[in-house]
Amino acid sequence: xxGLTGVKILAVAACALAxxxxxxxxxxxxxxATEDAAADATTPAIDGAPADAGxxxxxxxxxxTDATDAGCALHLTDAPGGSADAGWLExxxxxxxxxxxVAEKVTYTSSGLQVHAVVxxxxxxxxxxxxxxxxxxxxxxNASADGGPPGAATDISxxxxxxxxxxxxxxxxxxxxxxxxxxxEVCLGEVDDVRALMATLKTMxxxxxxxxxxxxGSHGGCITERLALAEPSLRGAxxxxxxxxxxxxxxxxxxNLDAGETEPGCGDGGAATCAVVQQFLVSTVEGxxxxxxxxxxxxxxxxxxxxxxxxxAVPTLMAQGTYDTLVAPSQACQKxxxxxxxxxxxxxxxxxxxxxxxxxxxxxxxxxQSGPLPDVxxxxxWKAADHYxxxxxxxxxxxxxxxxSQLLQxxxxxxxxxL
Length: 419
Fold this sequence. Notes:
Layout: H1 13-16, H2 60-69, E1 90-93, E2 101-110, E3 113-122, E4 128-134, H3 154-164, E5 168-172, H4 189-201, E6 207-217, H5 219-230, E7 236-240, H6 246-259, H7 270-289, H8 297-301, E8 316-321, H9 330-341, E9 347-351, E10 387-392, H10 401-416
Parallel strand pairs: 4-5, 4-6, 6-7, 7-8, 8-10, 9-10
Antiparallel strand pairs: 1-2, 2-3, 3-5
Helix pairs in contact: 4-5, 6-7
């Protein structure tokens, strides 16, 4: 396996992981919230309050109790609806392919639906470990049959970049996106789509069926966590800014919109900037589910991996910014608490804006590591634990700058450590 740490293609993952696809040309995407913060701004605690974090976060036990009280029978680990029997229904070569890398737009079957995906792999006739890349947002992959317009091919670059380094990659568009049949369901049927893609890839001659990984951010982070719950054979999973409890998130977003308060991550546009993207998320999620969390508690619970992470068997790396204005930072705390409640310790770091370890830290109630992160260039350094959390202070929904470079290097080393 060729070394991946530090490869330039990882830088393109930032937009691909966001809830709202950036640069895709889609009119459905809202403008991204500005994430500049004053250098002397006070870092809020991660507890899910709309501004200065004075309220206490909902715990996994709280949400599980809410679901139980509502009479919900959770289906977070149910079997997929897709089938690998048909293989690829359609294959279209992408211009992004080279003599060394095959890149294709494919169509496959999931729960009776025809769903599109992008697949890349080395053109060497060998079997390879495979990454299931789960994009963020609800408007599809940033890739088209010709590789996408200039500056908008982040997902295809992720795909070909990893293929250049010895991995096969499968990236589902999900149902209701990129012309796939069906409609957006929000971290529900999309999980079936990725599982069906995984099943189909296992039949391909360029895939090692015993070595699958998952990597996703935002909506894709939620899909990644639910995939890991349903597919314990995964070797490892990376979740960046993924919602863990949609019911709690729906309440948090409404609280922010009702208050109209300015958060540190809103930037120069203040509350109005946040309101645009938060209202887009609320409208998309509630429109897909058919109402808010108060009206549809069981439907929100079925989409909330934090309610079941106590039983997670797949090693995970999670990351979260404290200035995230789309996914409440408390969601990361809730996922951590869920893992630890199931006897799965999480090694966690709170990093200040300069990437120095903040200790002591009061975030999430602790405890936090006082020593440095494992060497982000060394896969061997990431074998000390099965579950990791990195919190980046004053970073927003999309991690940027040196923090992004560090996170992506850590993610690659974490995944390589599980090869």
